[in-house]
Amino acid sequence: MAEAKKFDWISLLVGFVLIIGGIFSLSNPLATFLTLAIMLGIVVLVRGIMLIVAYFKLENRTGAKVFFALILGILLAITGVIFLFRPLFAANIFAFVIAIWFIVDAINNLINADRLKPAGKGIYFLSIVFNVLVLFGGIILVLHPLIAGLSVAVIIGITLLVFGVNHIVLAFMGKESA
After folding, report:
1. Nearest to 138 by CA among 116, 172, 110
2. How many C-beta atoms surround the C-beta of residue 77 within 10 A?
3. Which H or E run contains 175?
4. Secondary structure string (H, E, C) spanning 11-39
5. Which residues cross the membrane (predicted)?
6. How crowded is residue 137: how many other Cβ atoms within 10 Å of its Cβ?
7. pTM of this prediction exceeds 0.85
8. What is the Cβ-side half-sphere exposure of residue 147, based on CA atoms within 13 angstroms?
9. For the segment 57-81, what is each residue's pLDDT rounded down to a tens digit?
10. What would the pLDDT profile of 93-136 be if each residue is shown by its tens digit?
């Protein structure tokens, strides 16, 4: 039986939506990152509410007092509300966490760089150079935290563009039907 290929309108539509999203992300990286911060706020708020509800369900069924879940739920809910109403604050916190991670990891790798000496002088030297760059990158992120957000927004924009083009190409290849 011969197979016919049909034009995939859904892939074309998805491709265009992804490309529009990519263009928006690249043209407005701060807005993209703030949108991600708001989405994170929603997720954290919902998770906090879920923990609070789970605490009361557990207490009603078993009488157990699982205060940790309640406290964590309350803290998450408060954090979610703060992130929703102060997305720039959420973006800064995210950037500071990344910066601290980079700094601590780079210092740890520099302290332990001598373990790479047996692999050769080139690997040892390259490790030191890369870890010094990561250390400087972490320090820069502490001083200018929105750089992390802008970088994430650019990566998201490029990814959306690539996926969009991919969907458009797939649309013209058609979907196979019997």
Report:
1. 110
2. 19
3. strand 175-177
4. HHHHHHHHHHHHHHHHHCHHHHHHHHHHH
5. 7-27, 33-54, 66-85, 91-111, 123-144, 150-173
6. 17
7. no
8. 12
9. 776 666 555 777 788 899 999 989 9
10. 877 888 888 899 999 888 888 888 888 888 889 989 998 999 99
What Rg do the C-alpha atoms of the chain give, in angstroms?
Answer: 24
**Residues facing residue 6 across a β-bridge:** 175
Angstrom distance (rounded) from CA 1 to CA 40: 50
- What is the C-alpha separation between 148 and 142, in angstroms, rounded? 10
Interacting residues of 103 by C-beta distance below 8 A, sequence separation 6+: 135, 138, 139, 142
Q: Name the residue among 132, 115, 133 with its Cα closest to residue 124.
A: 115
Instruction: From residue 30, give the alpha-carbon distance in Å to each of 18, 81, 103.
Output: 18, 20, 24
